[in-house]
Structure formats: structure tokens, C-alpha cells
Write a structure and sequence with these properties.
Layout: H1 6-14, H2 32-42, H3 45-56, E1 61-63, H4 64-71, H5 75-87, E2 91-96, E3 101-106, H6 110-125, H7 127-143
Antiparallel strand pairs: 1-3, 2-3
Helix pairs in contact: 2-7, 3-6, 4-5, 6-7
């Protein structure tokens, strides 16, 4: 009996790789959903680093401090991105150690995986779309004050 949800099985059989649906790739032109995700959930370069890291390492299960160490960033930069990603249904939050630790892992659905693949492929494979993503993040940072620590892990 298969105890994995269909979406979880799909992610496992994909081997953590983005799978092409065939035909001409369309990720070079950013669709409205991907643009909205970058503007509302990713928001910062640190947020983009988190998304790209998780797409490349989908089995990650770690705290904000652990992810910050892996990304060579300050916890204060990573924590708000993790909270936004969790609020947007990209990350699951796991409370461990009688509430002492808050760990994050990627939600294992095909929709989440496809979205992360679209961002990753657009950013990594196409210089023009990479520039567009950077412009979106810069514009976003100019509109709002810098991220401040949020959530129970914040100091």
C-alpha cells in the first residue's frame, strides 16, 4: 500500500529535479503567478536565496539559524523570508523540542514544486529574466522598509 500522497510520490519520483513537460520551455517569460510569488512571498534577495536553496535541496528540514548558516546570511535576513514562505503555503512549520525549536520544510505538492522550478529556471537559465527578477526585488525593497525580525525565532 502506498502511504505517500500523490504529490509527494511525484516529488520523490522526480528525484528533486524540475521535469520538463516537453515542447518549447515557457519559463523564460515570467507568468503572472510567478511574478506575484516573487513580489509577495520572495520579496528580498535573501528570500530568493531561500527559494533557490530549497528548490536545489527539497529534503531540507532546518531552523532559521541552520538555513541562515547554509546560506551564509544573518538569521535576521532569513527569518522574515521563512515566515512569508510559510504564510504563502510554500513551507511547513514544525515545532520541536517542546516548542523550543521551529523547523521549516518544503510543502511537498506538485504546485509548490512547479512554482519553485519556474523561479529557479527563470533565474538560473535566462539572463533577461534574471534581470527582471532582480528589478522586481529592488523595486520591492524601495517600496517597503527593510525586513525586520518576525516570529518566535526573532531576537
Amino acid at each position: 500500500m502506498n502511504i505517500l500522497h500523490e504529490d509527494e510520490q511525484w516529488l520523490l519520483t522526480s528525484g528533486g529535479r524540475c521535469l520538463s513537460t516537453g515542447g518549447e520551455p515557457d519559463y523564460y517569460t515570467m507568468d503572472a503567478r510567478t511574478r506575484k510569488f516573487i513580489q509577495e512571498a520572495v520579496q528580498t534577495v535573501a528570500g530568493l536565496d531561500v527559494v533557490l536553496y530549497l528548490q536545489d535541496n527539497p529534503d531540507t528540514f532546518d531552523t532559521a539559524a541552520g538555513l541562515a548558516l547554509r546560506l551564509r546570511r544573518e538569521v535576521e535576513q532569513v527569518q522574515p523570508a521563512l515566515v512569508r514562505l510559510a504564510d504563502n503555503g510554500i513551507l511547513d512549520v514544525h515545532i520541536r523540542g517542546d516548542g523550543q525549536y521551529r523547523c521549516y520544510s518544503l510543502v511537498r505538492t506538485r504546485a509548490v514544486w512547479d512554482l519553485l522550478c519556474r523561479v529557479s529556471e527563470a533565474y538560473m537559465d535566462d539572463p533577461e529574466t534574471q534581470k527582471e527578477i532582480v528589478r522586481l526585488l529592488i523595486a520591492r525593497s524601495a517600496q517597503t522598509p527593510p525586513d525586520t525580525p518576525a516570529g518566535p525565532d526573532a531576537k
